[in-house]
């Protein structure tokens, strides 16, 4: 599957049609959307329709898919229309429904695939002499440093981040993180990371980049930058070549403004000597690749890091709640410290314990027990995986510990809130009985009191109709 | 160093120096390590000069004192943003060895903690080595933790390891070079430990050392000097003893396999040479050293032994007791050997080889899980020494069990083994033999009956080769001192499963008996099938609202009763009993609280045993439990915690317990570890601990589990028992029944609740003082109230008087088959005829 399930893309789907039309003017954008956001079936549809001159009837489309799987083409088509890639005519009496690619998307994608035109949407390689020392390794290191700086800031609470002095990300980035509610300065909740921030940390690098970029775009609208300009620049970045220098001269004003931020994020590197050149880093070039390429980000970092185990599973958790993490990375340690009580650090390993207090602390930051558990299991040490495989694929983490972490959270959640609707003051018992019975039948009844003639339901639509229909009679 | 010692001993509470300061966090907490959780109790029961001495001694040798000035180093070196999480415990400045992946250890330079990767290829050897030199703290699946302590090093030296070798092997196994201060710590600990030995030879006590200077130092000492027996030569020399020729019966050597290695290390074939030589070379080194050594000794008088021991402790030179039993011609040899059928297991062999490492018997403690065959270890030790043996047990029940075991495993003549209890005061027939008795019999002060006084005199007048102390963890230092001073014995062997106490007294044993010689790994034994695999579960029983509101209102004592009598807990207990009886399990239910014990047992109509149950009735109930398939559940009070051997039991339910006692939890678990069916395919024993939610019990429960959790047991939390509602006849299922129960619990007067079983734990016995107090209180009571109350007009509760299952059992016994009745009658007639 493609990454269309990612929350960050909900933003795109929510954009108005006009924005899409402008976005699709850039061939790079059309290509990126095509590559990144579409499931395979949708891609097939698009490719089939790309060079068709006439709209085709919807029924013809049905012939292409297996009659038993009706759901997939419907889903694909609805996604395509939401992204304004296809246009489906409304159902009328006489004409059958027809489908066609939107004009802007079609022409841009054709252009992108065949080349030609002078749209320059795939960047303009800089003709200036490149700086010799900017090689792939350097770019990877640079991107890693910048990005980890940001993550690290998210992890260590705001106050502690300050202590590092100049090490952290720039003030603009900090502000961005705060406005995105990834970190908070509020002292009452202990300051520092929020639940959103922790979910952010748990994402893969590529998803993190998108989360942050979308945050930035939303912000950019406030700064009166053109979001179309910004988006198409991002899509362009995704189609650039790693390790190549590009020229900044052809960029629009808002794109030039944006590039300074991208430098902060580590997506782009501008050598200090030649200001009109920029190098996209691996973070940028993998922006629009699909899921397989996501892993190559990590792999690329691995190569750069030489310490191969750093990115693989490194955490061992024992049934006695002790945690041992084979890591040297301050970032990993900082993440661990959010929910463990760290005790000792050795050159290549840290040890600590999960305690009720440490989990409480995490929960007070809004981190959920499920997040902690998923972090632990995604980073479980190969030994744990081996042990679970030896038991025929049992749970990776000790089940007692997992249960306990959940229970610690539940301990403070004795109250459960259900939002819904409250019905009372029925005219007579019969009325009440009928309604309560109906509510129970449709499965929305949450609570009722026969004595007081009142009940509570979680959903109201069906019941409302029912009551109406009773009234009609 | 001396200056430091002074400083720390002057300050009371100096024991706490450098220990985990977070130890006393209130509220439920996760299990802690042994090391840190015992701290809370450390300041119980202070002063008494010896204890001070011991403490002083302990302080002198804590790793903290050797903390090198490395702080500055740490600051200068790789501090980064993550360092602040660790404070002083950031050791990332230590350099990794280039081939660290192949080495399994990390060493913490401050606390002497060692972490072992159990999945490393070298792990098994490292584990053997570490159990010898360090205290195991936690041994779950992947990473084990050990701590280097003075005691553990003391033990390592006493089994004959050399500091040089300890450091070398550590260095070979460690991922990081052994820190300088750890080196120093090891050398100085071993330097002073085990250098001086106390030897009983031809009934004379000698102080022995391989270092003449050490002896000179002792002789010049103002206390020890005068205690030397005058008229003997200053210092005599002799050659050191060797293991050569000594064979522990039942071991593989004994079976005829000739092997020169003194310790039971048998490298498996096909393993890389490099691995096997780690321990083996060590042992060989020892041999060479000892061959060359000559020992020197001087004699001291018998009465001075304790004074000398005490003084040596003060000097930081604790004496090691050894018994050269093969050269003891004065004491008669006992004709005893293991039966050929008795094959001892590898870990028993290993533990014994530590005891008889150099051909002499060393005093010390062997720690094996319950059910792993401690008795057999004791018997084998007795068979090796072949002299008079005295065995101390915790109760008269286990006295009988010990004797039976002896007869079962060894070829001893039944007349050579006598028991000394309040009912039974035999002597052995010949000039030497074995006496089995209980701590309380021997330690009893004050007036005794004529018989037992005579018996005591007999015991005290003799010299014993070995004293076996069963369940040694229950013996308080005072009582122990009484016992040892009264009885002359050459060597002492302490046996226990749980060398831990909530107070600090366990470390006293290290000095009073000897070092811990061996501690087995529970999980490993379970995997090898020597003890049963156990599924542990903690069942959370929510409090009913009525009970919880009463819980909040009442005093601590009543609270305990309320959470024990929680009807939901009762239901859970009923459900579990029902479920497991249907599976064919034999179930033991433990309740500390006698009121609850009786209430549960009568309501559920099950047999129960507690402190006041007579001996005959106990035996009858136990026999029925073992052999009668109608009696599958047994309720036990605290008295069942230790040394009760019930191999039939496969399921254990705990409904009330002694606060946060980790030892009790482990001991109770021990009741099902020896399950007969343990080697059946897929067999699991079950251990349930029922706790009432939202009460203090939760907190105690997590504390109690700490030890077992560190041994690698995992407690699954069960919040809801599937199908409990469907159970027919579920007790207290209606609100009115629950209210009634609550009324009963509330009117249960304090005397009932106080009726706490003393069990076998002698620490909780206060020489009958508490009993006397309780009696005094029972005088007239004046209360205000209406007349209707007296007439039962108010909330008078109805008490259900179920007939006790115990009595039913008794009655059953009467119903003999007519044939046997006739037989009995005939016998009686014959006896009468004889009498006449």
From TrEMBL, chain A:
The organism's taxonomic lineage, starting at the top: Eukaryota, Fungi, Dikarya, Ascomycota, Pezizomycotina
Functional description taken from the UniProt entry: Component of the general transcription and DNA repair factor IIH (TFIIH) core complex which is involved in general and transcription-coupled nucleotide excision repair (NER) of damaged DNA. Component of the general transcription and DNA repair factor IIH (TFIIH) core complex, which is involved in general and transcription-coupled nucleotide excision repair (NER) of damaged DNA and, when complexed to TFIIK, in RNA transcription by RNA polymerase II. In NER, TFIIH acts by opening DNA around the lesion to allow the excision of the damaged oligonucleotide and its replacement by a new DNA fragment. In transcription, TFIIH has an essential role in transcription initiation.
InterPro entries, per database record: Tfb2_C, TFIIH_p52/Tfb2
Keyword Methyltransferase tagged: no
Organism annotation: Lachnellula arida
GO molecular function, one term: ATPase activator activity
Protein name: RNA polymerase II transcription factor B subunit 2
Entries under Pfam families matching the protein: Tfb2, Tfb2_C
Alphabetical GO biological process terms: nucleotide-excision repair; transcription by RNA polymerase II
UniProt KW Nucleus keyword: yes
Subcellular location: Nucleus
Family classification: Belongs to the TFB2 family.
CC annotations in GO: transcription factor TFIIH core complex; transcription factor TFIIH holo complex
Gene3D superfamilies hit by this protein: 3.30.70.2610
Keywords, ordered alphabetically: DNA damage, DNA repair, Nucleus, Transcription, Transcription regulation
Domain Transcription factor Tfb2 C-terminal: 403-468
Automatic annotation (TrEMBL), chain B:
Disordered as annotated region, ranges: 1-55, 801-836
Cross-referenced SMART domains: DEXDc, HELICc
Keyword DNA-binding: yes
UniProt feature, compositional bias: Basic and acidic residues: 815-836
Listed name of the protein: DNA 3'-5' helicase
Chemical reaction(s) catalysed: ATP + H2O = ADP + phosphate + H(+); Couples ATP hydrolysis with the unwinding of duplex DNA by translocating in the 3'-5' direction
Species name: Lachnellula arida
Helicase ATP-binding domain boundaries: 355-517
């Amino acid at each position: 599957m493609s990454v269309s399930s990612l929350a960050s893309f909900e933003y795109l789907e929510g954009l108005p049609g006009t924005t899409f039309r402008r976005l699709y003017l850039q061939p790079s954008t059309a290509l990126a959307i095509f590559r990144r956001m579409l499931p395979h079936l949708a891609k097939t549809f698009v490719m089939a329709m790309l060079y068709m001159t006439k709209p085709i009837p919807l029924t013809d489309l049905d012939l292409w898919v297996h009659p038993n799987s009706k759901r997939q083409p419907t889903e694909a088509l609805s996604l395509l229309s939401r992204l304004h890639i296809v246009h489906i005519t409304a159902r009328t009496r006489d004409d059958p429904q027809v489908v066609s690619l939107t004009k802007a998307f079609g022409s841009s994608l054709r252009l992108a695939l065949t080349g030609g035109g002078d749209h320059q949407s795939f960047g303009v390689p800089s003709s200036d002499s490149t700086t010799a020392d900017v090689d792939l390794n350097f770019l990877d290191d640079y991107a890693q440093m910048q990005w980890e700086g940001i993550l690290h800031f998210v992890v260590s609470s705001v106050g502690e981040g300050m202590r590092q002095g100049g090490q952290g990300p720039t003030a603009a980035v900090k502000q961005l993180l705060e406005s995105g509610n990834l970190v908070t300065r509020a002292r009452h909740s202990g300051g520092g990371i929020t639940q959103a921030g922790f979910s952010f940390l748990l994402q893969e690098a590529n998803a993190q980049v998108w989360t942050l970029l979308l945050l930035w775009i939303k912000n950019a609208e406030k700064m009166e930058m053109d979001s179309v300009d910004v988006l198409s620049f991002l899509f362009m970045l995704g189609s650039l070549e790693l390790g190549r220098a590009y020229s900044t001269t052809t960029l629009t004003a808002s794109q030039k403004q944006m590039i300074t931020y991208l430098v902060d994020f580590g997506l782009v590197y501008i050598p200090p000597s030649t200001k009109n050149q920029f190098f996209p880093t691996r973070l940028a070039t993998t922006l629009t690749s699909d899921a397989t390429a996501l892993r190559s980000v990590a792999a690329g970092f691995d190569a750069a890091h030489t310490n191969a185990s750093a990115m693989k599973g490194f955490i061992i958790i024992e049934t006695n709640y002790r945690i041992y993490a084979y890591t040297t990375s301050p970032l990993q340690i900082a993440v661990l410290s959010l929910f463990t009580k760290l005790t000792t650090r050795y050159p290549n390993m840290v040890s600590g314990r999960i305690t009720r207090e440490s989990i409480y602390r995490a929960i007070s930051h809004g981190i959920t027990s499920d997040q902690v558990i998923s972090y632990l299991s995604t980073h479980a040490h190969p030994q744990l995986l081996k042990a679970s495989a030896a038991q025929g694929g049992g749970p990776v983490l000790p089940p007692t510990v997992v249960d306990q972490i959940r229970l610690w959270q539940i301990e403070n959640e004795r109250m459960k809130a259900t939002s819904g609707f409250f019905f009372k003051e029925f005219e007579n018992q019969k009325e009440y009985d009928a309604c309560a019975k109906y509510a129970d039948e449709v499965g929305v009844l949450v609570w009722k009191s026969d004595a007081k003639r009142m009940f509570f339901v979680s959903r109201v639509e069906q019941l409302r109709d029912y009551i109406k229909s009773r009234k009609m009679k | 160093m001396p200056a430091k010692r002074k400083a720390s001993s002057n300050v009371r509470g100096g024991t706490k120096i450098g220990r985990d300061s977070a130890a006393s966090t209130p509220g439920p907490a996760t299990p802690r390590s042994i090391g840190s959780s015992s701290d809370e109790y450390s300041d119980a029961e202070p002063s008494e000069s010896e204890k001070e001495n011991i403490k002083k001694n302990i302080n002198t040798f804590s790793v903290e004192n050797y903390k090198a000035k490395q702080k500055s180093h740490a600051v200068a070196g790789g501090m980064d943003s993550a360092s602040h999480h660790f404070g002083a415990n950031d050791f990332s400045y230590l350099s990794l060895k280039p081939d660290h992946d192949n080495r399994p250890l990390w060493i913490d330079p401050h606390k002497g903690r060692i972490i072992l990767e159990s999945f490393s290829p070298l792990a098994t050897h490292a584990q053997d080595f570490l159990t010898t030199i360090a205290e195991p703290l936690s041994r779950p699946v992947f990473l084990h933790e050990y701590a280097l302590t003075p005691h553990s090093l003391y033990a390592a030296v006493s089994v004959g390891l050399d500091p040089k070798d300890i450091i070398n092997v550590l260095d070979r196994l460690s991922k990081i070079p052994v820190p300088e201060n750890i080196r120093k710590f090891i050398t100085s600990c071993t330097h002073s430990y085990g250098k001086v030995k106390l030897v009983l030879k031809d009934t004379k006590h000698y102080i022995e050392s391989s270092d003449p200077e050490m002896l000179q130092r002792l002789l010049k000492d103002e206390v020890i000097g005068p205690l030397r027996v005058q008229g003997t030569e200053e210092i005599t020399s002799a050659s050191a003893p060797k293991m050569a020729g000594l064979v522990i019966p039942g071991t593989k050597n004994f079976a005829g396999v000739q092997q020169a290695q003194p310790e039971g290390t048998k490298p498996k074939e096909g393993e890389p040479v490099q691995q096997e030589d780690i321990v083996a070379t060590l042992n060989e080194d020892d041999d060479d050293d000892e061959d060359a050594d000559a020992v020197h000794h001087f004699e001291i008088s018998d009465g001075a032994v304790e004074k000398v021991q005490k003084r040596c402790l003060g000097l930081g030179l604790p004496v090691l007791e050894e018994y050269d039993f093969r050269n003891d011609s004065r004491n008669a040899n006992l004709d005893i050997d293991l039966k050929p059928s008795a094959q001892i297991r590898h870990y028993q062999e290993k533990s014994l080889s530590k005891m008889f490492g150099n051909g002499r018997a060393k005093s010390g403690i062997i720690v094996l899980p319950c059910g792993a065959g401690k008795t057999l270890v004791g018997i084998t030790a007795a068979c090796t020494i072949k002299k008079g043996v005295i065995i101390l047990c915790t109760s008269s029940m286990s006295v009988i069990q010990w004797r039976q075991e002896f007869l079962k495993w060894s070829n001893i003549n039944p007349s050579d083994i006598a028991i000394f209890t309040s009912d039974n005061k035999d002597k052995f027939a010949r000039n030497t033999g074995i006496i089995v008795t209980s701590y309380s019999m021997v330690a009893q002060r004050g007036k005794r009956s004529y018989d037992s006084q005579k018996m005591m005199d007999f015991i005290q007048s003799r010299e014993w080769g070995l004293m076996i102390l069963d369940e040694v963890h229950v013996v308080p230092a005072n009582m122990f001192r009484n016992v040892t001073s009264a009885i002359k014995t050459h060597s002492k062997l302490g046996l226990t499963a749980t060398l831990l106490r909530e107070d600090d007294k366990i470390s006293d044993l290290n000095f009073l008996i000897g070092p811990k010689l061996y501690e087995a790994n529970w999980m490993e034994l379970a995997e090898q099938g020597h003890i049963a695999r156990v599924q542990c579960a903690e069942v959370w029983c929510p409090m009913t609202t009525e009970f919880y509101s009463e819980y909040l209102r009442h005093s601590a004592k009543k609270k305990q009763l309320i959470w024990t009598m929680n009807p939901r807990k009762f239901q859970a207990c009923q459900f579990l009993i029902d479920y497991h009886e249907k599976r064919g399990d034999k179930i033991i239910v433990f309740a500390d609280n006698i009121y609850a014990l009786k209430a549960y047992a009568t309501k559920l109509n099950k047999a129960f045993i507690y402190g006041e149950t007579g001996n005959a009735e106990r035996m009858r109930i136990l026999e029925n439990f073992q052999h009668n398939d109608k009696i599958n559940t047994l309720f036990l009070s605290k008295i069942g915690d230790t040394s009760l051997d019930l191999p039939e039991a496969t399921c254990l339910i705990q409904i009330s317990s002694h606060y946060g006692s980790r030892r009790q939890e482990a001991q109770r678990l021990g009741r099902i570890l020896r399950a007969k069916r343990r080697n059946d395919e897929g067999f699991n024993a079950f251990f349930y601990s029922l706790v009432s939610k939202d009460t203090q019990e939760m907190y105690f429960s997590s504390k109690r589990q700490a030890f077992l959790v560190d041994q690698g047991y995992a407690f699954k939390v069960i919040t809801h028992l599937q199908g409990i509602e469907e159970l027919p006849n579920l007790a207290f299922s209606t609100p009115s029944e629950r209210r009634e129960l609550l009324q009963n619990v509330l009117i249960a007067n304090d005397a009932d609740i106080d009726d706490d079983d003393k069990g076998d734990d002698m620490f909780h016995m206060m020489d009958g003082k508490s009993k006397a107090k309780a009696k005094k209180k029972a005088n007239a009571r004046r209360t205000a109230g209406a007349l209707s109350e007296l007439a039962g007009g108010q909330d008078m509760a109805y008490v259900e008087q179920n007939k006790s299952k115990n009595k039913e059992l008794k009655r059953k016994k009467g119903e003999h088959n007519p044939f046997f009745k006739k037989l009995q009658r005939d016998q009686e007639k014959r006896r009468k005829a004889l009498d006449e």
